Amino acid sequence: MARRVSTQRMALNTAVAWVIGLLIFFPILWTILTSFKTEAQAIADPPIFLGFNWTFENYIEVQERSNYFRHFVNSVVISVGSTLLGLVIAVPAAWAMAFVPGKRTKDVLMWMLSTKMLPPVGVLVPIYLMFRTLGLLDTKLGLVIVLTLINLPIIIWMLYTYFREIPGEILEAARMDGATLRGEVVHVLLPMAVPGMASTVLLNIILAWNEAFWTLNLTAAKAAPLTAFIASYSSPEGLFYAKLSAASTMAIAPILIMGWFSQKQLVRGLTFGAVK
Amino acid sequence: MATQHSRAAARLMISPSVLLLLGWMLIPLGMTIYFSLLRYNLLMPGNNPYVGWENYKYFLTDPAFTAAIVNTLLLVGGVLLITVVGGVLLGLLLDQPMWGQGIVRILVIAPFFVMPTVSALVWKNMFMNPVNGLFAYLAQFLGLEPFDFLAQAPLMSIIGIVSWQWLPFATLILLTAMQSLDREQLEAAEMDGAGPFSRFFYIVVPHLARAVTVVVLIQTIFLLSVFAEILVTTNGGPGNASTNLTYLVYAESLLRFDVGTGSAGGVVAIVLANIVAIFLMRMIGKNLEA
After folding, report:
1. Which chain B residues are closer than 8 Å to A13 by Cβ?
2. Which CATH code for domain A67-270?
3. Domain B53-289: which CATH number of 1.10.3720.10, 1.10.630.10, 1.20.810.10, 1.10.760.10
């Protein structure tokens, strides 16, 4: 795609794009910078951009005062747990629909997608009451179950669109060469399916990590993942900007990095294959 | 190639997903509808008598409901307008040749990965706070009065925050769509003497129509359910100034413990979301055939 453009045009594009890009990114950058300031420097007038004494104090204090690490572990357990559980349930379904499509496969897929359209608030009351009765409120297990169910349609859809791209002829060729069913799966299909499965896992961990309706409504102090932990800073404690920034930076950093790797899958996953 | 045997196996492989999703949809949905017909308040234990449409009447005639519907529409409409227009412009910009394109792309999509509670709190405190926020310093620097965003224009401020979160999504999808545009078609049009504007309106816009529809529909599904951003910034206030339908149902159910009315509100929210969903499903269904 080598389009010839003048150097001036190139320089102009670059300048405009970088300015806009940095403006959009600025709130994140500012949060990261503020997390290394003292509280006084964080609200200094005029604001200090870079010329401050870098300190890690806020990070240490956030951990000591609120046991940040526990909420971090909750987030990891809930997002990874719900994704893996979802994968175990979804792989056979997506596999069957991609390789043994029936007359109603399309209807089943569309119906699965339609469950995603159910607004969470529409079922908030019964889920809350059920969880209360079953003792699942404020437990990691409860959130793993809910997040597995709300992300299951996305997992199935993503896997389905990836599996469908694996040519069926390859299977037949392997069979002709005398491969057993097990050999077929292990040596032929799995290697071709792994990249798609990895993308699916990545995107779903991101979605589950940032989910902020069920995590806020179904947890209290014990099982709260980072979304809910950060929300506790909306109390007057939020006025400690440097500590808020340190907690925020730690909460978004892992997912920001994962997200950058999953840009392409993001489009595909969130549009259910409608835009590739 | 599908034999009788493999069909049966396939059905067996699909059934766990189907059963789980069926249960997840039908059981809570049935309960919501059932609760919505009862007088049921967690603070007033006792038998919960059947009251017919009373909860709906109460919920729908509550002035807070009208406010919430208006706010929901403004929130969804405002964010859609900003993100789609902004996304097209940013997409066009990022589609141009430049130095460091990959890095700019990374900077632009970053807000999408910030969890809602973090972005709401960062904007609320570090930018919109009328005393210590950066906007207050900026106003002061320009000789203006600091503006208390979340008190004086709560809904607009939330629209701003949510737009910042969703602009990357719109940009990324529109950019992906633009990159699939046939370059030769554009070059041919250019050679035939089409100017940049007619090229944009006659070639790029029709090509993007489908991607824009997808962006609008998917964002609408998510935007109807905006919750965390409101919870941590304004709690729906002042008054009902920034209460949307999702937040109102939450407040009825879990703050006022009125399960009956909350459930009626939940059913209303489901009906509204379904109207959008029907259009989205048609779009995606068409793609499945292609």
Report:
1. 93, 96-98
2. 1.10.3720.10
3. 1.10.3720.10
In SS3 terms, B228-253 reads as HHHHHHCCCCCCCCCCCHHHHHHHHH
Whether A18 contacts chain B with CB within 8 A = yes
Query: What pLDDT, in 10s, does the model give residues B156-194?
Result: 999 999 999 999 999 998 998 888 887 788 888 888 888
Inter-chain contact A21–B288, Cβ cutoff 8 Å?
no
- Please report the ipTM that was assigned to this predicted complex: 0.87
Place of tokens 């010839």: A4
Q: Say if residue B3's pLDDT is above 70.
A: no
Q: State how far the alpha carbon of A201 is from the alpha carbons of A150, A154, A271, B36, B165, in Å.
A: 14, 11, 16, 37, 22
Phi, psi for residue B38 in degrees, rounded to 5: -110, 155
Residues 6+ apart with CB under 8 A from A123: B28, B29, B31, B32, B266
Using a CB-CB cut-off of 8 Å, the residues of chain B touching A227 are: 115-117, 228
User: Is A123 in the B-facing interface, judged by CB distances under 8 Å?
Assistant: yes
Distance between CA atoms of residues B126 and B275, nearest Å: 38
pLDDT tens per residue, range A261-271: 777 777 777 77
Give the Cβ contact number of residue B197 at 10 Å: 8
Q: Which residues, numbered 84 to 113 in chain B, qualify as contacts with chain A under a Cβ-Cβ cut-off of 8 Å?
A: 90, 93-94, 96-101, 103-113
Question: CA torsion, points A231, A234, A236, A237, in degrees to nearest 10?
Answer: 40
| Distance between CA atoms of residues B172 and A269, nearest Å | 12
The residues near A229 (Cβ < 8 Å, ≥ 6 apart) are A66, A68, A71, A247, A251
Q: What is the 8-class DSSP label of residue B127? A: I
Give the whole-angstrom CA distance, residue A140 versus residue A56: 30
What residues does CATH 1.10.3720.10 cover in chain A?
Answer: 67-270
Percent over 90 (pLDDT), chain A:
36
Domain extents for chain B? 53-289
